[in-house]
Amino acid sequence: MVNFDHLYSDRASKMRKSEIRELLKVAQDPEVISFAGGLPNPQSFPIQDLKVIVQTVLNNHGKVALQYGTTQGVNELRDEIAERCHKEGMTMGASAENIMITGGSQQALDAIGKVFLNPGDIAIVGLPSYLGGINAFRSYEANLIGVPLDEGGIKLDLLEEKLKDLVKQGMPVKFIYTVPTFSNPAGTVMPESQRKKLIDIAHEYNLVIIEDDPYSKLRYDTSSIKPIKAFDDEGRVIYLSTFSKILAPGFRLAWVIAAEEVMRKLALSKQAQDLCTAPFSQYVAHEFIKSGSMDLHIMRICEMYKPKRDIMMNSMKKYFPEGYICNKPNGGMFAWVTLPEQIDTEVMFLDAIKEKVAYVHGKAFCVDGGGASSMRLNFSYSTNEQIDIGMKRLGAVIERKMSVLCR
């Protein structure tokens, strides 16, 4: 066998496995009830509607839908997205010209890393933060610095302290990465006042905000909130969203909104990646929106996921020993649980797998090595019955662990 080690780039030698992807491999046993993946429920996929829409696309747009497309995406879809963005308050810098369709948000995160980050450049992320964002930026050898979250998202007082310290050290920050609405993994929501203040901070320190927004449509107990991008009058916010959670992840469709100058760079990056996102998927998504199916479908998803969230919260109260902390998420797909500090959830994962239940340990989401006693639980994928059974299994694992550690 060839030894390739001496041929790899320095960057390739620093690449890390995705914690979640590795855990999902372990959890493939069909008897394991897995709360580990960030998977939409397959029962939510609008298969019957899509059968009709796919035929419509082939009949009306087949010759262009099956051809190569432009880098920024199908004009009709970008127009629809722009119109919906305007209704959400993004009246500046969210025209079709500022929108690019990507192969999932992960491609956009990778392009942002390529366009903005040199080795050693500093980016701010939350503690905890989305692992896909962490991995994308680390692949460009960024220096990621974490700022803790509370129920309102990233703590802005601590963020300002951190930025001041970095400026004093001559270490400017390139951007702040945030998932402000039903965040992955913590489920937090940044209030509107905090969103406005974050814009002011970005202006003061002359940096960019990366707003990742996959979950804002999945809300259960709260009214809609304007994205950070809605308060951006300088083009500092790069906004990402996706069809993965509101249509189906198999289409690999998302979009990024950025200022014209930034969009040119992102488009050049995408051209080197894949030339264009599949036009066929884009035409299907456009037809789904145009037919009026999208809003009704989102309503159905929320009606499915809210009871699952409630079952998970109630099952925790029933089966978990005292001492855990979990704030009820008002939307999204995840619950963030923190156990007594003597419990290491990475170590406990092996015990959980033996009991046929899986989660993602908290350290995977924390760039500072923290999160050891926390874990992320997904409530969207499992059946209602599986959620209760799985939480009972997990509660027993936690109880045994606590009894051993407290002897």
Task: Please give a structural write-up.
The chain is α/β, with parallel strands linked by helices and 407 residues long. The protein has 2 domains: 146 residues, Aspartate Aminotransferase, domain 1; 230 residues, 3-Layer(aba) Sandwich (Aspartate Aminotransferase, domain 2), CATH 3.40.640.10. It has an 8-stranded mixed beta sheet with strand order 2-9-8-7-6-3-4-5, sandwiched between helices. It has a 3-stranded antiparallel beta sheet with strand order 10-13-12. Helix 5 runs parallel beside helix 6. It is globular, with a radius of gyration of 21 Å.
Structure, briefly:
The chain is α/β, with parallel strands linked by helices. It is 43% helix and 14% strand.
CA distance, first residue to last residue: 51 Å
CATH architecture of the largest domain: 3-Layer(aba) Sandwich
> What's the number of extended β-strand segments?
13
Largest sheet composition: 8 strands, mixed
Task: Give the CATH level 1 class of the largest domain.
Answer: Alpha Beta
* Order of neighbouring strands in the sheet with most strands: 2-9-8-7-6-3-4-5
Ordered list of secondary-structure elements with their pairings:
Elements: H1 10-13, H2 19-26, E1 33-34, H3 47-65, H4 75-87, E2 99-102, H5 105-116, E3 122-127, H6 131-138, E4 143-150, E5 153-154, H7 156-168, E6 173-178, H8 192-205, E7 208-212, E8 237-242, E9 254-257, H9 260-273, H10 279-290, H11 293-319, E10 334-338, H12 345-354, E11 357-358, E12 360-361, E13 374-378, H13 384-405
Parallel strand pairs: 1-11, 3-4, 3-6, 6-7, 7-8
Antiparallel strand pairs: 2-9, 4-5, 8-9, 10-13, 12-13
Helix pairs in contact: 3-10, 5-6, 5-9, 11-13
